[in-house]
Amino acid sequence: MTTVRQRRVGKGTEAAEDQPSEEKNVKPDGKILSDDTGGKLWNVLSVTVGGIVAISLGLLTSVYVATLHENDLWFSNIKEVEREISFRTECGLYYSYYKQMIQAASIQQGLHGLVYDNKTESVRTINILERMNVYQEVFLSILYRILPIQQYLEPVYFYIYTLFGLQAVYVIALYVTSWLLSGTWLSGLLAACWYITNRIDTTRVEFTIPLRENWALPFFAVQIAAITYLLRTHLQPVQERLTLTAIFIATFLFSLTWQFNQFMMLIQALALFILDCFDMLPTAKVTWLYIIQISGLLLVCVLQFFNSMILGSLLLSFNASVLIARTIQKNLKKGGLLNRLGKLILHVLLVLCFTLLINKFIKKILNLESDEHIFKFLKAKFGFGATRDFDANLYLCEEAFGLLPLNTFSRLSDTLLFCIYVFVLFLMTVVAVIVAFRNLSGSNQDQFMEKMEECTITLKPDAAYNLIHTVLFGCLALSTMRMKYLWTSHMCVFASFGLCSTEIWKLILKCIHLYTPRRTYVIKYSIPIITLLYISYKFWPGIMDELSELREFYDPDTVELMNWIKSNTPNTAVFAGSMQLLAGVKLCTGRTLTNHPHYEDKNLRERTKQIYQIYAKRSPEDVYTILRSFGTDYVILEDSICYERRHSRGCRLRDLLDIANGHVMDGLGENEPDLKPSLYPRFCEEIKKNLPSYTIHFTRVFQNKTFHIYKLAKHK
């Protein structure tokens, strides 16, 4: 088991443009008429200062997380094998392809090795570029090879510094989104500060560097910023085209770098659909966003050699269904309240039916089953019946896929983030409901626009989109803890926007009959500044203490295991074991695996379940036959799995296997009536007794406090 220990001493702006307030004189094309040249200079100065602050905060965040990573592991001082072991589970698998490309004799040979890979899954040749989102590793490895930096920078540092650099892009994108929404860069400053001070809940990049989400989320944040800008009024045609291009590029990069992109963009498409139904976004822009999502995903599909999971995604089916249904119902946004509600209900049902039919048809044609485990997991998670499915239970029992813990809210409240977020969310939701009702009641679009100009309560399209975005991703985070990073980062944006928004403070002051433009102006700036001072006073000492705390990577058992494999087994040896450990085996030793943690393939899931019989109650003959069917030469058993105590009874890996095999679980507690005792003891325990029935098939060749390696006999 890996730990960290105390290190031994030894070697060693405001942007008012495009969002003018109602007191200013505005031309029809949206440009503000400045009273004098001084006003223009002030705007330029404000934008310049705001931009400098954004870039500075982004770079500081990169340095901050890089320093935390160095201090936690003493990364610059540990051996290469220890560095590689620090890339846990699937992180190690992804990094191994970067290493493979770097070590290849040529770029062409490296690419050939990925397209025709026979070391990731034994007795199978798979296309890594099709199965996994590793184009970023390919691009980085090629860049490292062609740049003249090999003498100055090790490959691993080029890799991790790129990821830490993307954190700068992430923070700048959050900053810009908040700035665009509120009209002041002070809002962006507050959003960035909240992101940093709530680091535990906003990012995990410093200890899961190669994880796909750390590549993808910065591009997702850029996309949200671009969408926010696109939804502003009075954009010039050239501005609109450039913004759509930026959205497409960000969407494409987000889709290319994360296998779960389709599910995130489905939620985004649902947000656009809801807002479009209630006439809160321009239909033409929404249509462009649907098309961009479809085209971006299809381009990724082509690059991934027509990955069937992408073609069968709900996102493509949903977006196509919306466009078809809109063509059928051309007068959707005309009529009175009851008329429009009826049309809206019919429209929703039509889209839902089309989505299911199209998706079912595509999956039937392609014989697609790659994502069935996700739907089994969701069905069981939300109470649509218990399941004995091994894959679904494997997800259900992981804390990361459980509900968001309540202590998350107490941590977020310590920085005032959650409290302010809830306050802003409540106000904006009330406004959205009122505006949606008013829109549905309007007899025609012209009258609606006239009413909007006269009414006190308004909701701009960019604010409306970010409201629905945060609500939907909040629901996702509450239901699945692993997805909280999509919500908490946007929470920083939304809360800071609300605190610095002229419209929100104007609404509050009008409700209590205290509104004046000057009072609104003072509150808009004073409260965010006070909040920033509070955050600085309370959390700056803790950040300094965190940066001064020095630890050291310490995992001697895994290091010993990897060194033994490299020194005592042939390069062609095939290893079986847990998914998480085998990813490290591939990275550190280059040996062939039977299974791995990238779980989005039905054959691999079935293979993993078979390999995991080493922790079930099966006969030595059965286990030997299973392992040899996958070409296994060595099997690694882990005491931490065989005698697991991390999970409660019913969620331990051995329990999941027992249930799936129809066997009674170990220990005190109830069992389902139809479960029966196994005829055999647990394999991982019994093999250590060196009984003849086991030694005829398995010979122990290595052991330490954590791991046991057995070599399989090669019977004729």
From TrEMBL:
Regions of compositional bias (Basic and acidic residues) in chain numbering: 21-30
Signal peptide: none
Residue ranges of the TM segments: 41-66, 179-197, 217-235, 242-258, 264-281, 312-329, 341-362, 415-441, 462-481, 487-509, 521-540
Main location: membrane
GO terms assigned for molecular function: mannosyltransferase activity
Key word Transmembrane helix present: yes
Annotated GO CC locations: nuclear inner membrane
Keywords from the UniProt entry: Glycosyltransferase, Membrane, Transferase, Transmembrane, Transmembrane helix
Pfam families in UniProt: Dpy19 (PF10034)
Family: Belongs to the dpy-19 family.
Protein name (record): D19L3 mannosyltransferase
The organism of origin for this protein: Uria aalge (Common mure)
